[in-house]
Amino acid sequence: ASASIKMDELLTNWLGSDAVYESVMRVIENLKAESNTNANTSSDGRDTLTTVDGRPPLSPKLLVIKQQQQQIKKRPEIPPFFRPKGVVVEHAQPHGDNPQNPPPSPPKRRINSSFTEDQTWDGIYMANREGGGVTGGGGSGEGDEISKISAHEYDTIATDGAASATTGQQSQQPQQQQPCIAIRARELFQELGVFPSALDSVEGLPPNLPAILYQYERNESTYHKEKEDMRLVPMERFERITKELCNFPTFFHKPLYDRILLLWEQHLTSQQIKLPPLPMVTFGMFHYFWDTEMAPYDKDERFFRLIKQPTQDYITRDDFFPYIKELLSDHPGLEFLSDHAEFQDKYAVTVITRIFYSVNLCHSGRITVRQVRKSDLLSVFQQVDEEEDINKVTKYFSYEHFYVLYCRFWELDHDRDYKITREDLLKYGEHSLSHMIVDRIFDAAPRPFESVDENGNVVKPSRDYLTYEDFIFFMLSEEDKANEYSARYWFSCVDVDGDDKLNNMEMRSFYAVQLHRMQCMGHEVVPFEDMLCQMMDMIKPANSDYLVVEDFLQDHCSQVAGALFDALFNVNKYVMFEQRDPFLERQKREDEFDTDWDRFACIDYNRLAMEEEQREEEAMEVDWVTMDEEEEDADEYNALGLSGSSEAPF
Hints:
This protein is mainly α. The protein is built from 28 helices and six strands. Helix 14 (341-359) crosses helix 17 and helix 25 (561-569) crosses helix 26.
């Protein structure tokens, strides 16, 4: 009986899909049209009721049945109920492609992060022109410099895609004429910078700066051959150069400024140039930085090389802190945290941990340039720079998401030691997790970061407790199982023997605990065989004997892969899955949230906000009651004449 009920539920969910409904109606209309036109006529136009070659004719009823069978063979396969909304199912193609399994989208290439403009300092065409190139300023003054800019500002700039453009396209659409990087940089330095002779107008400069600049003028080193190369820009005026020239977020300007100074100092040391480092960025120093760190690379690699340390080939957790610190001091949506240093640190830790959760899939604690290319990290940083409402940037930076994560951690951490024990984690989600999966979380779940001892040796994280960063990994995986990161997290937990295969014996051991819990709670017990059959039908693994993590990462498994994990260790969510309403599920697919985590965070944040308001109201009521009692006591005291003072009788 339970099996038939489950089949009815699956059929109801399947028929509730828009794509399925449209496909079924299309097939019915085609069958009706063909049955009306071909009921009494064969495919060659002759009457089917007459004899052909001495053979008796087919009966009209049998002919219609035969034509329907042929049409069934030709019609497209009805899509499963989990097909994403908006996908239109077409008829099968002549070459035999299955419309239900379309080819995957093309992989992301580096061209996606390349530039449409020439990124070399002088421009590809300018460097080869006679007398072309802008390597320095006009030696005789501002007039020569302006004339040099005018001579080049209308030169044609080659684009990254110019080599592959056809002649016809070039004739129809001429290339955009734009100054090269050198000219644009010089214009910004002239607008924002100052010459060494005018440094009196800049505050906070070291007293020995004039002596250092004098050595640069006398040495005439590379990148400082002309007078204009000595123009300096203070750090507080570097925002436009960061955004307009380097295409970095505005709040990157201070770390970028420090990186230019650091690389210039290393350049002087490596080239054995006997010059002291400068505390301010000059035009010549920016020229050197562009040639070495910007021109040879695309957007993603520029971002990667800026974040990481110059001596490393990966990004660590500490590399992000200067940039998140600048975001906290610069973004208007985080201004209210300026007086709460502790929560600023927790917010920064939350953002960085979420970045590593989504980008560093191998959980090594080191982000490579390849992982940056495959992620949306740079675009999200650009988005948070342009969006005033921090909560609209749901990827990594939302304050509401941080509030939910930290409050959930705070609720479980009763002794306030910033460590979650096994007993604490069992209370998560109203005791929804089994003790078996909690043990596996502590023993086998991926940990985001490794610690380093005093001698610099890598120390494996302790498995006796969960830190706040570990809890973020757990909660993001628990509340949104419809993504690759969560699938890998939970697969590593339920794969007890570590052979990268989830077999029936492992699943049965986890589900046995669930059966006992469902019996104790009075829920209908679903046998393991029925549950496994249902899950296998939804996941469709490559091998029916076991599951691998790639089975959960199939396109059609994005919304159903988490159901198996819930069935194995989360009794509350599994019961909700068994008793789900198809209409509510359809509304969920059509709401404004992109992921299950976004939906959960919004609901939980509203819950926490309401609880906070109730606590404030209760506190105010207690204060009013206390004030009323004090006033009554004071009146009785005065009535007895014990107050020691009295008002004047007028």
